[in-house]
Specification:
The protein has 375 residues and is of the alpha/beta class. The protein contains 14 helices and nine strands. The chain has two domains: 61 residues; 294 residues, Rossmann fold. The termini are far apart. Keywords: Oxidoreductase.
């Protein structure tokens, strides 16, 4: 009984969040109409009624959604943990046929707990390394096979796979920079190109998981931010290119959820790699700053546990925003799910002088401070 109440409670909460603004506007207009009629301004009240009716109609049309059916295939990349895993479970619970791309289907000689969990819920799992042409080609064949055998329509490709490495630019090796570029940007392009014929044929949708760092780059993840900014530019141009073929491209910004993701599970190893390749001059210059920095940002790595630790996002707003990005018939270009803190900083970043903005950025990241040792 409690679970049923919880489900309906969540539905009512989601409904209220989606419609609270329009309900408040409707209440305000109704009060104004009542006042105008009461005071004898009938023509003004009639005009306001027509304008309100037209606005409500346009709003309803713009917010219409298509309903997920079992024949709808949703392909999601990067489902090993965090957002990808959670979205795969969510889409499957909504009734869609879900194909989840994962880096590996087994860990050494034992089953992968994430993969087994996905399969238990009816999600179809297939190995996918978006940095490999061969792996992407095999994944594309799997999508074609599923579509033909089960008579499925590819409704959406959710480009979720991504990696992030913390560390100042000078510390990050060329290999680490190319690793992020290969996965976040080139890998997303590769899988999208492979599936584009099926997407066009079915009038599907391309959902690109972006980041607030695309527009507001942060220190410590300059390379990651560069890949996300490039991804945003690509998605913006692609939206116009494929729009004439009936394909929608939307960017989905889910906000921060590092504590519920394994995206930083290798951060400690990345810092070790940076230190091994750091010159003697750099080690002497940075001193204990690098050590303090590495210890601070490795905390997320330690909290993530082992590779089989299953991370499920608990923020219901992420799922609500994702549903809008996935299902709205006339989608917006960008969908954001961000806490008030992110919203506040984003506005301040864009409307303050550069020297104030830079200080705000440092407060937002809250990284260890740089202290020059006294000689």
């Amino acid at each position: 009984m409690n679970s049923v109440k919880e489900v309906y409670g969540n539905r009512w909460t989601a409904w209220w969040r989606r419609n609270s603004t329009v309900l408040q506007v409707a209440a305000t207009i109704s009060c104004n109409l009542g006042y105008l009629l009461e005071t004898g301004y009938t023509r003004t009240a009639a005009a306001l009624s027509m304008v309100s009716l037209g606005g409500a109609t346009l709003y309803y049309i713009s917010k219409r959604r298509w309903k997920i059916k079992p024949r709808d295939l949703v392909v999601i990349t990067g489902c090993n943990s965090g957002l990808g895993y959670s979205l795969a479970m969510h889409c499957r619970a909504q009734g869609a046929t879900v194909l989840a791309g994962v880096r590996e289907t087994a860990v050494v000689l034992k089953p992968n707990a994430v993969v087994e969990s996905l399969k238990d819920r009816g999600v179809i799992v297939h190995q996918l390394d978006i940095t490999s042409e061969e792996s992407v080609r095999e994944f594309g064949e799997k999508v074609k096979q599923l579509s033909e055998e089960r008579q499925l329509a590819l409704r959406a490709l959710v480009n979720n796979a991504g990696v992030m490495v913390f560390g100042e630019f000078e510390w990050q090796t060329q290999e680490l920079a190319e690793y992020q570029l290969s996965v976040n940007l080139l890998g997303t392009m590769r899988i999208t190109r492979e599936l584009m014929p099926i997407i066009r044929r079915n009038g599907g949708r391309i959902v690109v998981v972006s980041s607030h760092c695309a527009a507001d780059p942060l220190p410590g993840i300059s390379v990651y931010a560069a890949t996300k900014a490039a991804l945003h530019a690509w998605a913006t141009a692609l939206r116009v290119e494929v729009g004439k073929y009936g394909v929608n491209v939307v960017s989905f910004i889910p906000g921060g959820f590092i504590s519920e993701s394994n995206i930083m599970r290798r951060q400690r190893l990345h810092f070790d790699e940076m230190e091994r390749h750091m010159s003697d001059e750099a080690k002497q210059f940075y001193g204990d700053y690098f050590t303090r920095y590495a210890e601070y940002f490795s905390q997320a790595d330690l909290s993530s546990g082992n590779q089989d630790n299953i991370k499920v996002l608990s923020n219901s707003r992420i799922y609500e925003t994702f549903d809008s990005a996935l299902l709205e018939i006339h989608p917006s270009a960008v969908y954001r799910c961000e806490p008030w803190r992110y919203f506040f900083y984003r506005i301040m970043f864009k409307n303050t002088p550069m020297w104030i903005r830079d200080r705000l950025v440092q407060c937002f990241v809250n990284a260890p401070s740089w202290q020059i040792e006294k000689q």
